[in-house]
Amino acid sequence: MGTGNLYLRNCWYIAALPNEIGDEPLGRVYLDDPVVLFRDENGQIAALEDRCCHRHLPLSLGKIVDGGIQCGYHGLRFDPTGDCVEVPGQSRVPPGASVRSYPVAERHNCIWIWMGDADLADTDLIPDIFWREDPDWVAWGALWHAKCSYNLLIDIQLDNTHAPYVHPDTLGSGAIVDTPPKVDRREDGIGVARWMMDVAPSPTFARALGTEENVDRWLIWDFTPPSLCAFDIGCAYAGTGAEKGDRSQGITMHTAHFMTPETKNTCQYFWSVGRNFKIDNDQVTAAMTEEFTKIFSEDVAIVEAQQKSLDAATGWLQTDVNLDAPILQARQILDRRIAAEENA
Ligand code: FES
Ligand SMILES: [Fe+2]
Asked: Who is most buried in 46, 75, 79, 217, counting CB within 10 A?
């Protein structure tokens, strides 16, 4: 094992949503590193260390000038690659005057950043949340700041048994707790599938499918490091063959949760939901946006309270129960990757 690095560095993280980056530089913290994001003259995103190499003012307090960023203290200007290209009052830029730049990419209606070795940044490794920009799907979501370790938000996403307690009026249904999961362990991830046959629909699905009749319901999730929790959820009229692959009598939704650590105990929480039914119905989209905003805020309230409680105590012990197994396995996979990166 390594010396306890908290984060995986050689991977893509969601840095921001595209509409967050306008005419002003945006200062953020990822993996304890301050970063400034801005768009150059061609609209391409640049990500630089948010610390001027002169006297260390955060560059995010400066402004965008000629496609670069001008420090708000003495006016040194940096191009999108991080090189200083102008020093007011002198014609020569001191050799080596630069700040670190980070690989960035815009895909699936998200801005991704690579916080590790830039030579390893391969855009093929960006998680495939295609439905965020697929014409057959409608997707919505948000990026929130949460006062908790990113690990706690991963845990709650992978813990399907909290629904009846945390989301009683939406997702909650005892069927989840009573249905044993099928677990698929991979070298670099873990998948869990729960099929709940001939059960009452959850309130959310009853509304979406427009029925109170029994359904076959599925909840399939997949975790891949560093923090992608991707869900395939839905239900179909009972006995119509969804489990065998025919979902024509049902509805499917995808949700993705992706946590970008800011510091040890704070993170950015990105969530998104997509559906491929009634995609042109804005009323359904508005109602579902409201509903899922409520559901995921309920999660955040839990994990932020949990973080406070963890911070307040020392030497605590925790009891593990059966439902924790997939969560502990996901944590092991992430820890293994972090240790491998550290030892490399
Ligand atoms: S601190 Fe940035 S220009 Fe002086
Ligand atoms: Fe939840």
From this structure: 217
pLDDT surpasses 60 at 2? no
Residue 298, C-beta contacts closer than 8 angstroms, at least 6 positions apart: 166, 167
Amino acid type, 68? G
Number of helical (H) and strand (E) elements in the chain, helices listed first: 6, 17
Q: Give the Å distance between the CA of 50 and the centre of ligand 1.
A: 12
Residue of 227, 236, 212 whose CA lies nearest to 262: 227
Q: What is the pLDDT of residues 168-197, one digit of tens each?
A: 887 766 566 677 788 898 888 999 998 999
Substitution site in 71, 84, 93, 98 for ligand 1 pocket (most atoms within 8 Å of beta carbon): 71
CA dist., res. 223 & res. 15, Å (int): 19
pTM score, whole prediction:
0.93
Q: Which atom of ligand 1 is nearest to the CA of 57?
A: 1
The DSSP element (H or E) to which 50 belongs, if any, is none
Specify the amino acid at residue 314: T
| Burial per residue of 228-239, b for 16 or more beta-carbon CB atoms within 10 angstroms, e otherwise | bbbbebbbbbbe
Predicted pLDDT of residue 270: 98
Mutate to test the pocket of ligand 1, among 53, 54, 87 (most ligand atoms within 8 A of CB): 54
Helix, strand or coil for residue 268?
A: strand
Dihedral angle of Cα 294, 296, 301, 307, to the nearest 10 degrees:
180
Show the ligand 1 pocket: residues with CB < 6 angstroms: 52, 54-55, 57, 71, 73-76
Tell how far the Cα of 30 is from the centroid of ligand 1, in angstroms. 22
Indicate the Cα dihedral angle 84, 89, 92, 94, nearest 10°.
Answer: -50
Domains along the chain?
Answer: 12-124 (2.102.10.10), 137-343 (3.90.380.10)
Please report which ligand is nearest the Cα atom of 51: 1
